[in-house]
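[Meeting: bench + compute handoff]

Bench side (C.D.) handed over the final construct sequence. Compute side (W.E.) agreed to return the predicted structure before the next meeting so the bench team could plan truncations. Sequence as handed over:
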Amino acid sequence: MNLLASMRYLVALDEHRHFGRAAQACHITQPALSNALRALEAEYGVVIVRRGRTYVGLTHEGERVLATAQRMLRESEVLQQELRSEEGNPCGHLRMAAVPTAIPMLARFAAMLQQRHPGIVPSVSTMSSQQLETGLETLSLDLALGYTERMHLRDVKLDAWPQSIEHYFLLRRAEQPSADMLRIGKPITWAEAAALPLCLLTPEMHNRSIIDQAFRSSGKTVTPAIETNSVLTLVLGVVAGNVCSVLPGAMVAAARDHRELEALPLVEPDVKTPIGFMTQQGVRPSRALEAALALMQTPQWREQVELHSGALGT
């Protein structure tokens, strides 16, 4: 039995909650995955997987084996990067994810990191806040970019690297397109924005809870004209339709090429949300993660953050 491979299959099964999809993700057949897990059970003398006609879940003992599997795979990746990397030239994969509204910032970060260290292969995903926190907890993510105000909600301890304090804007079509790029208009209150047809993220997103609370604080409750879990839809809904949207500075900055749009700072209340990178505390960093943490401290990256997030110079 290949112990490390069997541990990888167990982690995949926990992630996908389905034998067939887990096998597909591991590029093996479903019988091969099932046989490997049975061999793992025989190795430790416990039942790991609760089986029915479909996948049911893990036993208590299985959860303990899963936690060990996650640590083993993480340590294996760290060791591989140490063996393959040369001094000053780190290499290996770096698994990163961001909440939808921070994905433009993470995309820029990944591009700068890969340019600075061509041996690093960043993997960039969009996830909800809960998925980010689970990814950090299970070590399936190396680095997350999200709402640091939520760090206390899980038992797992996290380290944070603050990046920006996000401000919020109403994105709408301008009466007249500007000559070159999206323009920043005069402030608008949340109460005034509540009267407009809005395209907002779906309710399970933390960004939506922030926005709903801001409207409630202004004495208003909104029913969106469009709901989506796609940040692209937030922008294109405004570009192609008759709706407006509420976006943080990082998303407004990503839409700057749309000269037919304008962004109005939202006030009364003045909502500001801290955004930061997070890692699990006490976990030995890989060479790729060390390089990423070093990039965060550079003036070049701080300049990007100031240009493309927060108040956008307002």
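W.E. noted at the follow-up: Residues 12 and 25 are 7 Å apart (CA to CA). C.D. will use this when planning the next construct.
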